[in-house]
Amino acid sequence: MEENNDHDSDTQEQSLLDKTQLLKYAKDLQNGTIDGNVLKEKVDQGLMTKLERRKITRLAKKVGSKDKEEGELTERQKLRRLTKEKKMLPKLDKEQKRKKYLQDLEDKREQESAKFTICLGCRKRGHFVKNCPNKPVAEARRGAQICYFCGSNDHSLKDCSEYNGDESNLPFAKCFICQETGHLSRNCSGNTHGLYPKGGCCHVCGEITHLARNCPKREED
Questions:
Q1: CA nearest neighbour of 118 among 25, 187, 211, 34
Q2: Residues 169, 147: Cα–Cα separation, whole Å
Q3: How far is the CA of 192 from the CAs of 50, 122, 176, 185, 195, in angstroms?
Q4: What whole-number distance in Å separates Cα of residue 48 and Cα of residue 40?
Q5: Do the beta carbons of residue 57 and residue 29 sit within 8 Å?
Q6: Residues 140-170: tens digit of each pLDDT
Q7: CA 172 remoteness from chain centre
Q8: From the CB of residue 83, how many other CB atoms can be counted at a distance below 10 Å?
């Protein structure tokens, strides 16, 4: 008998607010215009039932979810969504990870190394020929990529499979000091400074044809 009375009571409580009013309260609750205390006061004043208050709370969550789908997300929610999207991306292989995470570090190392490097284009210190600010001079001296040994445009000298390491036999190399072919500028008889146009030498062996980091005696030690 009591269960029937409770059922009748719930049925009567549902008639206090219509759907439009429930939705309005839900939106106000979701937007922060009202809070749970306001709804409790409405219940105490007999303006809504406890059942309706629970419905409003549930509707507020649904309204909030709909707004989130439309882009009204908090910074924390945006971060969570971004994290989920990243997890759904295909995994990177070893080479892709190296490019992604080490590229900035390699660029920084290259910039530090360039401070002590002589540009092979303009012969000034502080940058590599590929980054030379005097492009016309650098390109004229450097020319298009070509293998100085076999003459191929598909690779450079260091990648040539036919090259035997003899720098005195480079038929396609053009010296930018004497403008003759057959040798590199560092081996030119007119180049008295080698790789050190402003003076200096390898501090390991004293030669001017290579840098200290490439010195063969260092490798022997």
A1: 211
A2: 12
A3: 97, 17, 14, 10, 9
A4: 9
A5: yes
A6: 555 556 788 888 878 888 888 888 877 778 8
A7: 39
A8: 10
Structure token digits, residue 108: 């920084």
For the stretch 69-122, pLDDT in tens is 545 667 887 888 888 888 877 787 888 887 777 877 888 888 888 777 777 767
Residue written as token pair 């990529």: 145
Q: What share of the chain is helix, strand, coil (3-state, %, to 5)?
A: 50, 5, 45
CA gap 121, 132 in Å, rounded: 7
- Residue 40 CB: number of other CB atoms within 10 A? 13
- The H or E element containing residue 106 is helix 94-114
Q: Residue 125's beta-bridge partner residues?
A: 118
Q: Give, as one character, the DSSP assignment of residue 154.
A: S
How far apart are the C-alpha atoms of 5 and 24, rounded to whole Å? 30
User: What's the rounded Cα separation, in Å, for the pair 61 and 77?
Assistant: 15
For 118-131, write each residue's pLDDT tens digit. 777 677 788 777 77
Type of residue found at 107? D
Q: Which residue has the tokens 């309260």?
A: 25
